[in-house]
Amino acid sequence: MIEVTAPSNIALIKYMGKQDADLRLPTNPSLSMTLDSLSTTVKLWPHETFQMAYGEQRAHKHYVRIQQDARRLLADYSMACRIPPGCALEVQSTFPASAGIASSASSFAAMTTAFLKYWSQDDAQFLTAWELPQFKERIAQLARLGSGSACRSFFGPFASWDGEHVSSVSTQLELIHCVVLIHTEEKKVSSAEAHTRIHSSPLWHGRPDRARARFDTSLKALMQNDFPTLIHEAWQDFWDMHSLFHTADPWWTYFEPGTIQLLKTLFGCGFLVTLDAGPNIHIIALRQDTEKLQALLHPHKVLWDKPSSGVRFGL
Ligand code: PMV
User: Fold this and answer.
1) What's the 312 CA to ligand 1 centre distance in angstroms?
2) Which of 110, 196, 199, 217 has the largest CB neighbor count within 10 A?
3) How far, in Å, from the CA of 148 to the mean position of ligand 1?
4) Is the CB of 73 under 6 A from ligand 1?
5) 55-113, pLDDT tens digit by residue?
6) Environment class of 263 (CB within 10 Å of its CB; exposed 0-12, middle 13-18, buried 19+)
7) DSSP state of 187
8) pLDDT per residue over 172-197, tens digit each?
9) Residue ranges of the alpha helices (H) in the chain?
10) Which domains does the chain have, with CATH numbers?
């Protein structure tokens, strides 16, 4: 059996809008923190047909779609490749589906890695190649074809994604993460739909340039351990993305009354605050401020996490 665990990730500078929908190439670069325990574990066994409890259609499409590129990738690293028509998959996330945390990033990162390990004929050789960032990047590029943001879950503690290229960004900042659960019903507008509908917003004009400028500033801030600048850029960028939603035609919102209420409490408190495509609030704080944050968030329902280096193997 093959077991792979991939964490979710939360973007500070958001991927919103595709330059190439089929290849899932983004219009702007993005920057995210790679999470740790908010993750998805995939268990894979050999099986004659493709079998999976949930989401089989999308997973099977991905299984077939990446085969040709996978053969090329394994050959480039002198590995044999055998692709059987099927396998059995068990996919389990540590967070409830209703938590409003995208499970597609962690699921596609874990599944893609599990498929590649299954198809390569030599586990030891695969794990040796895995240590090479270029090899991991090629697998991340295949995961991206299933879910764009999945490519960032391979690298940590932060990951930058620009066009085809995805890599780790390190920092000496000691950080924690949490997500405050405001509303846990399934969202009415999927991120796939958001990526296309935002083009109808008058604010779309200039968005790629604004995001790139924030990406550059944030990368520098991370490397210089400059948390206040990160807080500022992340705040600006989540408002920018949600303003696209609020001004698209037709417009929509993920905000709930509780979202606004907590945003008002958090504003100016020295925490990095961001929203994904949902009503729940993600917070990144300096580790030394954990207790202050816990006190501020009481009695909300909160899932706590920390940064990690990305995809890992179970067995
Ligand atoms: O990976 P996708 O196609 O589900 O896009 C998700 C994009 C956002 O989560 C809204 C932002 C991001 O960069 O993670």
Assistant:
1) 22
2) 110
3) 7
4) no
5) 899 999 999 999 999 999 999 999 999 999 999 999 999 987 766 677 899 999 999 99
6) middle
7) P
8) 999 999 999 999 888 889 999 999 99
9) 56-65, 67-76, 103-119, 123-130, 133-144, 191-197, 207-223, 227-247, 257-266, 290-297
10) 2-171 (3.30.230.10), 175-305 (3.30.70.890)
Q: Is the pTM of this model over 0.90?
A: yes
User: Would you put residue 193 in left (φ > 0), alpha (ψ -120 to 50) or beta?
Assistant: alpha
Q: With b meaning 16 or more CB within 10 Å and e meaning fewer, what string describes 4-17?
A: bbbbbbbbbbbbbb
List, for residues 288-312, the tens digit of each pLDDT value.
999 999 999 999 999 999 999 999 9
Best probe residue, ligand 1, of 8, 16, 62 (max atoms within 8 Å of C-beta)? 16
The response to whether residue 153 sits with its C-beta less than 6 Å from ligand 1 reads: no
Report the separation in Å between the CA atom of 48 and the middle of ligand 1, taken as the mean of its atom positions: 34
Instruction: Indicate the length of the chain as a whole number.
Output: 315
Rounded to the nearest angstrom, the distance between the alpha carbon of 262 and the centre of ligand 1 is: 23
